[in-house]
Design goal:
The protein is built from four helices and no strands. It is mostly helical and 80 residues long.
Length: 80
């Protein structure tokens, strides 16, 4: 779903990308974080899925910064 939104706004000016992300992507992200937190309680933190979820939650601010700044590409690389 996130990538479908990004495909739709690719090539638009940064201000328009930010506006679409704020209206469309933000609600998905807001639902995704509690879902991840709930899954983390269900899986072992020692295995790959648990590690991936923990990594995502530990880097949440960087991973979601693209929502408010249309200049940022929506990729995990931009959070590092």
């Amino acid at each position: 779903m996130f990538y479908a939104i990004e495909d739709r706004i690719r090539g638009l000016p940064a201000t328009q990308r930010a506006a679409v992300r704020q209206s469309d992507t933000r609600r998905l992200i807001e639902d995704f974080k509690p879902w991840l937190e709930a899954r983390l309680l269900e899986v072992s933190k020692k295995f790959g899925l648990g590690k991936a979820i923990r990594y995502t939650l530990n880097h949440w601010d960087g991973l979601t910064r693209f929502i408010d700044d249309g200049r940022i590409r929506s990729s995990a690389a931009s959070s590092r």
